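Protein in question quoted for reference:
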Amino acid sequence: MGVCVKICAGDLNKQISVLRRTLQPPRMGLSASESTFETIETPWSKIVTVRGSRRYNGVNIDKSTTHLFECRYQPELMMLDGDGEIFISLENVNITNYYKVLEITNVDEQNVKLIFQCTNRGDSEKEGSNA
């Protein structure tokens, strides 16, 4: 029998956006494609920053993982098939950071908690001042 997976509501203290990215072909005269993001869900999450190599449930997590986002199980999130085009955005005081989802795990297959294994995308959107 598996271990009971519990979620403390107080741990889910950051609201994130789960996004699907689509690439638009370059416009005339431009060489770069444009990304557009569609919001799929906005769950509350616990965020764990990962440093170096880390094991989770006995499985070695890839060194490129920088963050784990833990949230309550939602079937529509578990069914995402994004071919590397699923992202998470997190807003922090006028800055939106983006994280590429590497893998989504249904912890112990209990349909209680999902873990998004992510890597920092490396870019962010900053809002200008309204002065």
Q: What stands out?
A: Residues 26 and 33 are 4 Å apart (CA to CA). Residues 9-24+33-123 form a domain with the Pnp Oxidase; Chain A fold (CATH 2.30.110).
